Amino acid sequence: MLGRATVNIKIPHDDAISKTIGIYRKALQFCVDVAWEKRIRNNVRLHPFVYKEIRGFGLPSQLAIACIKQACGTVKRAKSRPMIKGHSMRFNNPRSFSYRHGVLSLSTIEGRKKFNVALPRYAEKYIDWKINESVLWVDRKNRMFFGICFSKDIDIPIRSAQHRQVLGVDVGIKHLAVTSDRKFYGSVIPKMRRHQEHTASLQSKGTKSARRHLKKISGRWTRFMRWKNHNISREIVNSLGEGNIVALEGITNIRSNRGKRFNKQLHSWAFSQLQSYIEYKAVQRGCLVAYINPQYTSQTCRMCNEIGTRNKGFFSCGHCGYSCNADLNASFNIRNRVKPLAMTFGLPVNQPIVASNDGLLNVEHFESPDLSYNAHRL
Ligand SMILES: [Zn+2]
Question: 302 CA to middle of ligand 1, Å?
Answer without folding.
Answer: 7
